[in-house]
Amino acid sequence: MPAANDPETVRKQYANDENLRIRQEIHTTYTVPKINFNEWVLDSVHWHGDERVLDVGSGAGTYYPLLKARMPDVSYHGIDLSPGMLAKHPNKGVVTVSDAQKLPYADNTFDVLMANHMMYHLNDVDEAIIEFRRVLKPSGVLMVATNSVQTMPELQVLMRRAILLLTRTGGTQVKPPTPASNLFALENGCRHLARHFYAVMRNDIPSKLVFPEIDPLMRYLESTRPLREPQLPADVNWDDVMMIMQQQVTHLVNHLGELVINKLAGVLLATDRGDFIDNFVSISDPLQTSAE
């Protein structure tokens, strides 16, 4: 089982919001161009203002205040498997500890279901998508923010080089720890969703992390330790990898003045007859047109 969806590994990574908060703060501070990614994700949906929204994997509730600021009448519900993450949610009265693959809601309940940056931690992605579709209304929309498999290639090169220097394993067999998001990325995520929904749309947003100093990048890497360390070769120690990573990053920053890491993230929207596909379905379905 990949480390990214091993229950014990995920539990350690998200026992509280500290690791995620570190990464979010680093992305906010060092991303170029500056953009509020969460606001951009919300902009992908055509909101009416009175939607019933389920935030699956809500964690500390990053999206909750943004939704309430936009739409005071929105009916928001959040779930997460980690009580430690939910402890920081700004409205504990609207969240519950629950499994994304066994949602405690009736059929056809929600207008929008958000599952942002969490699908890659699920043991059975398709089972979860079936559950998502069940609780969505027929015109409901599933929103999934995630990364591309092509994101942060420079970081992967540096990690592989560090591991190669430390392991006795043959060079052709050395792979850097796979980012968790590769298990459900923009590319393979489209295929997963298309098996269950009539229409899927992908929106990408390229950007860069620009580090003029080494400390933020090292803190970023340390925050991913619970997910990356189990993927190292048996003869490689995490602290040794970090030592070599620090040496490499220091050399690059001293030589170039900064370290640039390219990012590619985005959002996938899936629906049967809502949002971006609504007009097309109305025009192409003669039964629906005549009924109206």
CATH architecture: 3-Layer(aba) Sandwich
Number of helices: 13
Instruction: Tell the overall outline.
Output: elongated
Oligomer: single chain
Strand neighbour order, sheet with most strands: 1-7-8-6-5-2-3-4
Level-1 CATH class name: Alpha Beta
Helix content: 25-40%
Strand content: 15-25%
Q: Which stretches are poorly predicted, pLDDT < 50 over at least 5 residues?
A: none
Distance N to C terminus: 50 Å
Number of strands: 8
Largest sheet: 8 strands, mixed
Helix/strand/pairing category: alpha/beta
Characterization of this structure:
The structure is a single chain. With 292 residues, the chain is an alpha/beta fold. The protein has one domain (3-273): 3-Layer(aba) Sandwich (Rossmann fold). The protein has helices spanning 7-13, 18-30, 37-42, 64-70, 83-86, 125-135, 153-166, 186-194, 215-223, 225-228, 238-256, 278-284, 286-291, and strands spanning 31-32, 52-56, 75-80, 95-97, 110-114, 136-147, 199-211, 259-271. It has an eight-stranded mixed beta sheet. Strand 3, helix 5 and strand 4 form a beta-alpha-beta unit. Helix 7 (153-166) crosses helix 11. The termini are far apart. The model has no long low-confidence stretch (mean pLDDT 92).
